[in-house]
Structure formats: structure tokens, C-alpha cells
Amino acid sequence: MAIDNKEVLLEVKNLEVTFNNSRKNKGFRAVKNANFHIYKGETFGLVGESGSGKTTIGRSIMRLNPISDGEIWFNGKRIDGKISNEDKREVIRNIQMIFQDPAASLNERATIDYCVSEGLYNFHLYESEEDREAKVDAALKSVGLLPEHKSRYPHEFSGGQRQRVGIARAMIMEPKFIIADEPISALDVSIRAQVLNLMNKFKEERGLTYMFIAHDLSVVRYFADRIAVIHNGRIVEVAPTDELFKYPLHPYTLSLLQAVPMPDPKIEKAKELVIYDDSIRDFSGEKPILREVSDDHFVFANDRELKEYQEKLNEMKKD
Amino acid sequence: MSEKNIILSVKDLEVKFKVRDRVLTAIRNVSLDFEEGKVVAIVGESGSGKSVFTKTFTGMLEVNGEVSNGEIWFEGENLLELKKDSDWEKIRGKKIATVFQDPMTSLNPVRTIGYQISEVIMKHQGKSKAEAKQEAIELMDKVGIKDPERRYDEYPFQYSGGMRQRIVIAIALACRPKILICDEPTTALDVTIQAQIIHLIKQLADEYKFTTIYITHDLGVVANVADYVAVMYAGQIIEYGTVEDIFYDSKHPYTWGLLSSLPQLGLKGEELFAIRGTPPSLFEEIKGDAFAPRSNYSLKIDFEQEPPIFNVSETHWAKTWLLDPRAPKIDPPSVIKTLHERMLDMTKKGGVYGDR
Questions:
Q1: Do the beta carbons of residue A67 and residue A81 sit within 8 Å?
Q2: Does the beta-carbon distance from A197 to B272 stay under 8 Å?
Q3: B272 pLDDT more than 90
Q4: CB B198 within 8 A of CB B166
Q5: Exposure of B312 by Cβ count < 10 A (0-12 exposed, 13-18 middle, 19+ buried)?
Q6: What gap in Å lies between CA A285 and CA B310, rounded to an integer?
Q7: Which of A208, B82, B312, B345 is the most buried (most CB within 10 A)?
Q8: How far apart are the C-alpha atoms of A255 and A249, rounded to whole Å?
Q9: CATH architecture of the region A2-318
Q10: Which residues 283-302 of B have a C-beta within 8 angstroms of A?
Q11: Domain residue extents for chain A
Q12: Among A249-258, A276-285, B101-110, which stretch is predicted with the lowest mean pLDDT?
């Protein structure tokens, strides 16, 4: 999997996000000391349950949530906290988001034409009215919609089509990086494959980089190159996709993998339920941090745990 | 079908809805027998009619909907002859109970959890308040609520999503129903919680001996829970069989499409199989096989005449012309044929599923 001289596009260092922070109460730590980087051209999966902080990380990168500590670097520039207006525009233009619920994320009173070109208006990314129209037409075509759909309103479309509009709207900005927050969770099974294929097409054609936020590991396995598993605001394991699925180390990753229902009755019916319980784990030793167990495989551990994980990994890799 | 205990039998069911002066046919001529004590999963996309189908068993269709044809036989009675709500109440909740998708909306936010369970016990079993409380606490314990005495007096907002769904299940079980309809019971929940709830329902079915009807769009869940699977498309059951029939030997192109478009089966770098287009509008009359316009395997006759039911084996049938002796022999897509090998390959390593 390892590509040589990989260029880092996004780097998140010691990220902390706290809500309701005030002098009186300490607030809720939604993201705890998150560290990861995303290479150019890869799809990075961020997987966790609801409330684990995965969306919060995505929103912090987009500057939608203020962060309370840490740094975010994009394309060699720091983009968190106070930055110049020029840099802000740069960030907004280059990082686009695809949301979960296409019904809620499109302005229902605006035509598709406006929905898709809003970004162009904001940044004056067109030379003339014809140029804008041509761009919108091209964007709609690239997602498999027709230019005559332009005058319609979001409610006239099916869920899958709306999500295509959501993607067209992001793509028209010619971004470098896309944060897709559960882009297929709200879609029907027969439509999901269409949207995933579309996203893959853009990745290949335009060398896009994705951060794919999901709760479902099975989708991420197909789509992502590397995966980070997040639990209670803490990233517990990061590894290339194949490695993570073959050699999951952290007990939470295991339980998450195991919980995904597989479309195979023989396997599924023989499965035993593993429930992850923080309280029965042995936490002795010093405070754990995210460390590298093997090449590009990181796990949240202290010295003692790291040793155990290494042994386990060697054991698994033997056969 | 020989010597099987049929608990519920649906015959030629047709359901229509009036929507802004137009008539939508949501269920088109569906017949199905439910065997006692088994788990039947009904799979389909949104709008395929799977929820509407089961809602007719408890008389819970929306006001603009009506059953325009058919019979539903349960304990020697045609349920569709029940007219009054008071008649339905002897069935609904009492004999046939439903667990809905969203535990947030199916519980009353201003009543305590305990009240909501014991209310049902008092109403349907005629027990006193104290007895009902006793039983409610036992039920809460059964569905896996820790420290039920204390949590009896709490409100729904004090419970997590998974816990709330456990309470909804407890309420459904309070009347000892013969049939439990689970309408996407885990769709709103996290995967880890989903696994626990599925496990719980199975366990309870063993203990209370009810028949389970599972509605879901998640084929992974189906593989886990079902004995039999009914695949619905555009208001019809297009294929029915045991869970092995459906996953390893399906016959209908729509079932093939559903299975092969699963991201779980996708291989990196390969394009996922995607079903073209969108489901047909049910406002219009559907001619021939409803799936024909989206299918890669449609024959000329698919556009002209509706396929009848072809029996594949004693437990397995499908509505597709491909099974007609005159039809050309078509091999199912390779993904389907190698499904088990693919999944084995994917899951055997890493000790997640153990060696198998």
C-alpha cells in the first residue's frame, strides 16, 4: 500500500475540541488530543459511533467549530484559529464538504441552478454569465444529472439525485480536499453504490483527497486507503485499510469490526457477540498515547499495552 | 406447503393510498404465509411497501390508505373484517406487537419509563398497579436494563438510544404477543448497539416463543436474524426463500442487484455494481415486471406481462420470467456465486470471526 514520497496534504496535531467551556465548568471534551495526517490523493476513513467526535473533527478542519488546542495544517499552511481573510477564503474554496442528509443540506427555496452555483457567486469564479452556466452544466453532467434539471427545486428529486446535487455543488469549486460526512447513510441500498462509484470517479479523474466519515466499517473498507477508528473523542487506532481489517489490535476496533453485520448467513449466524466495555480493561501503567506498532499502524497504548499488541501482531502475522 | 404451523396467512393483498387526488398502489397482490416460531425478514428499499405490508396486520394504515382487496387470516379470523378500533385492540399490541424504528418518537417523553410499561400490562392483562410494576421491573431486567428498580421512575430522555429501544421492546413484550413485528428496529442505532439489540430480540424470541417479522434494508442484519427472507420491490414480493436460498442461490435479477451492490462485497479498485435508475412510480400502472427497466437481464416479455410465481424448490420461489423453461439460461453475476468465498476470505483473518 505504501506509496513512496507521499505528500502530506492535511495534518492534525494534538487537536482538542471542547464544548461549553467556561471559567465555571470545564466543558465537554468532544475531541481528545487527536493526531493524524492525510496524504495527497488518498481516501482517509474516520470511523466511530455517534457521539465519538468524528463529525466534530471534520467541522473543525472546515473552521466550523473553534478548536481549543492543537494545530491544523493544510497544504503547508496553518488553518486553525486566527488567520487572514484571504487564507480563510482559500480554505473554504479548497476544502468542500458533502453532508449526510441531502434533503437538509440543500436550500429548498432555491433552484438547483442556484444551489450549485452559490459557491461560484461567493468567489466570483466565473468570467461571464455564460461561463457560469457552462460550469454548472458541466458539473451537473459529471454527476449524471441533466442541464435541464437546473430550473427544478430540491424536493423534485429523489434522495440519490439530491446527493448528486450535493456532490456537484462541492465539485464545482474544484477543491483539493473533500470531507464527506456519512454521504451514503441516508440513501437507499440500491443507490449507495451509484454514489460511491461517483466519488471514486472524481478521485481518479481529479486526484482528489477525501476524508470519509462513517459509522459503518464495511463501507469504509471498500472506499478508504487508511482508516482511523475513533472512540469517545479519542483516536484509538490508525492503519492502512487491509492491515486494519486483517490485524485489528485495539479491543474497540475489534468489537466494531465484529459488530458490522456481514451479508452471509453462514458467517453471521455463527458469530458471537463481543461487547466492548471500557470498565473491564486493564489500564495499569502510565498514560497511553497513539504510537506506531508496525509500519504505518498506530494504536493508542502505553508501554505495557504496546508490548502486548506487538506480540499479538506477530502472532497473527505468523500464519 | 405441508404440515407447517401457519400463524398468519396473507392472501392477494392490495393496498391503495389516496395522495392529492391521485391513487397510489402500495401493495400489489401479495400473498405470504408466516410459519409459527420462525423469523421472516422482509427486505426492500424505501417505498417498496415493506412497512405498509406489515401495518395491515395491525390495522395501522394511515387514514388515506385502504386495503382494497385480500384477506389476512390469523387465529381463524380474517383481520380485514375487523372494522372498529375496539376490535382491533384485541389484536394490535396484544397478539401482534410492533417495535418501530425510532425509539425517540415511540416513547412518550413526559411519562416515566415505568409508567409506560406498566400501563400496557394493566390495560391488557388487567393487573393491579403493584403487580404491573413488579412485572414491568422483571421485563426491564429481561431486556437488559441494569438496576431496573431505580430506572423505573426515570424519563425517556435519561436513557440512551439503545436503552430506549430496549424499553420499546419490553413494552411490546408486555402482552406476550404471538407475533412481534420489528420495523427497522436498529436503523437509528450504532452498529455496536445494533448487534446487541438483534441479539436481544433473538434471545427473547427463544424464551417467549413468538414469531418475528423483521423489516429491514440491511442485508447484513437479514443474514444474521432470518430463517426466511421475502424480497420486496415496487409493492410485490419478488422472491421468497430460506436465508440460504436468498444469499447463495437467488434467482431474481433484483435480488442479484441488491446483493452485488453491497459495499461489503466490493473489492478495492473495482467499480461497485450499481443498479441503474430509480424504482418506478407507484402512481402509474406497472406493466410486466416492475424491475425490467433497471435490469440487465430483462427479456421482451418482462415489459409486456407480469411474471407468475415460479417454484424453485419447496421453500424457494421467485417472480421472474428467467425461471420459465423457455427463457434463455442466464448465470447469476459472479459476485453472487462466489459470495461465501469472498466473505470468508474477508473475515477469516485477524481473529475477528475466528477460523472458519
A1: yes
A2: yes
A3: no
A4: no
A5: middle
A6: 65
A7: A208
A8: 10
A9: 3-Layer(aba) Sandwich (3.40)
A10: none
A11: 2-318
A12: A276-285
CA gap A296, A173 in Å, rounded: 32
The pLDDT assigned to A2 comes to 45
- What are B88's three cell numbers? 382491533
Residue of B nearest to A51 (CA): B190
Question: Measured between beta carbons, which residues in chain A are less than 8 angstroms from residue B356?
Answer: 267, 270
Note the pLDDT tens digit of each residue in A269-297. 888 777 777 777 777 777 888 889 888 89
Chain B residues touching A265 at Cβ < 8 A: 223-224, 226, 243-244, 247
Neighbours of A46 (CB within 10 A): 29
pLDDT of residue B200: 92
Q: Is the pLDDT of residue A168 over 50?
A: yes
User: Which residues sit opposite A213 in a β-bridge?
Assistant: A46, A181
Residue A116: pLDDT band (50, 70, 90) is very high
B277 in A contact zone (CB under 8 Å): no
3-state secondary structure (DSSP) of residue A69: strand
Which positions in chain B touch A247 (Cβ < 8 Å)? 349-350
Q: Taking the model in full, what pTM does it have?
A: 0.85
Q: What is the mean pLDDT of residues B250-257?
A: 94
Average pLDDT over chain B, rounded to an integer: 89
Structural contact between residues A74 and A241, judged by C-beta atoms closer than 8 angstroms: no
Beta strands in chain A (DSSP E): 8-19, 28-39, 43-47, 69-74, 77-78, 95-98, 177-181, 209-214, 226-231, 234-240, 289-294, 297-301
